[in-house]
Amino acid sequence: MTTKAIRGTQDILPGQVEIWQRVEESARRTFALYGFQEMRTPIFEHTAVFLKTTGESTDIVQKQMYRFTDMGGNDLTLRPEGTPPVIRAYLEHQLGQGRSIERYYYIGPMFRYERPQQGRYRQFHQIGVEVLGTESAHLDAEVIEMVMRWLRDLGVRDLRLLINTVADEPSRVAYRKALVRAQAGHLDELCSDCHRRHRENPLRVFDCKVDTCQPVIAQLPSIHDYLSDTSASHFERLREVLGSWGMDYEIDPRMVRGLDYYRETVFEITSGALGAQDSLVGGGRYDGLVAQMGGREVPGVGFAAGIERIVLAMGGQPEATAADVFVVAFDDSTVSAVHTIVHQLRAAGVRALCAAYDGRSKKAQGSAARRSRAPWQLVVGPDEVQSDRYTLRRLADDRRLECSGEALVSTALSLANEPAANPTGSESRNDG
Ligand code: HAM
Predict the structure, then answer these.
(1) What is the 3-state secondary structure (H, E, C) of the chain?
(2) Which atom in ligand 1 lies closest to the alpha carbon of residue 83?
(3) Ligand 1 mean position to 399 CA, how many Å?
(4) N or C: which terminus of the chain has fewer CB atoms within 10 Å of its end residue's CB?
């Protein structure tokens, strides 16, 4: 019997995983520049952590949670997102003392029972950040600028930054009334999910993807006509700061984001390099959420980026190599010498591999060398051992470097540290 991975999950195999590591390392590097520290929370939580926060009327809570009862009778859920768990941990460990501003990031798997397709999975991975302790629009701009810089550094093409406001509570009360009135006249044109949304939380109608609902949604009033002075000036301030930093953005007045906790700023970043699932990053401000989870009134803002989508948007990255140098034994008499050389190279920090095991032929070792994609090869035969002269050969362009046994490690080390091989004609040189 062969067992397959669960639908909507994937194995990240060698060759791919190196791109993931690059994405993660680059996030860690960039976020550290802005004073963020990593937080790791469990992948499952008491279901209550998500119900009122992510929101009972959202698609995530209604349809997508991996919710189960464990053998102790606890109602648990595999985390569908990272924001409520981070705040749960922040409160549990009393992390926000005084007026401190806390900046966290997290990297890990999330789980949503969605219909899988390219870019949409049931287990996916997010890199997210949360900043707790300030309601300044400067911070909204700061996290937006940070994530844009990170994605650009990674080489993600065709980025679009979309911003909007979902305003404060007084604005939303007025807006909700207007929405209910506007939707009520068109209920027969809306799907059954929208009927429920209309009853429970009319703002959520904007999450609907059903084609036949779109004409009605396009006619609904805009939140921008209902903004309180506070919300209008918060949004204005955000625009000013983004503008003063020379950042391009578009306002999407209908973007509400599919989570209930947002207040004021919301934003998304899309990439033209992706298909239908083009949202790479989603985020926004969630003032009120910490208090709702039992803490003080601590404002917050954050975002999460989907790693699978970033990797897709990065497109044809070169496949990773398993080694810098592959050492091949010409025959049985040099197997020990090969293992000694591999050992010395590794000790010096060169990624080295060989396949001189179980009597493998030179040809079989050569195939293993090609599979490893190691750019450099060193064939060790009796002549090399006897003369103590070795030749490192770059496979891409047949560049050859000859050196003594003594200089072998230092030569290989400098090659390993060279920028990626640039096969521009062959050269032959004597070193050492
Ligand atoms: P979200 O928009 O639900 O926000 O997810 C953020 C990102 O996660 C999306 O833009 C997408 O890249 C990725 N993503 C979401 N669902 C899937 C899926 N099924 N398959 C693949 N990728 C997916 C949040 O999760 C909020 N917690 C973000 C946040 C943090 N807001 C404030 N702080």
Answers:
(1) CCCCCCCCCCCCCCCCHHHHHHHHHHHHHHHHHCCCEECCCCCEEECHHHHHHHCCCCHHHHHHCEEEECCCCCEEEECCCCHHHHHHHHHHCCCCCCCCCEEEEEEEEEECCCCCECCECCEEEEEEEEEECCCCHHHHHHHHHHHHHHHHHHCCCCEEEEEEECCCHHHHHHHHHHHHHHHHCCHHHCCHHHHHHHHHCHHHHHHCCCHHHHHHHHHCCCHHHCCCHHHHHHHHHHHHHHHHCCCCCEECCCCCCCCCCCCCEEEEEEECCCCCCCEEEEEEECCCHHHHCCCCCCCEEEEEEEHHHHHHHHCCCCCCCCCCEEEEECCHHHHHHHHHHHHHHHHCCCCEEECCCCCCCHHHHHHHHHHHCCCEEEEECHHHHHHCEEEEEECCCCCEEEEEHHHHHHHHHHHHCCCCCCCCCCCEEECC
(2) 27
(3) 47
(4) N
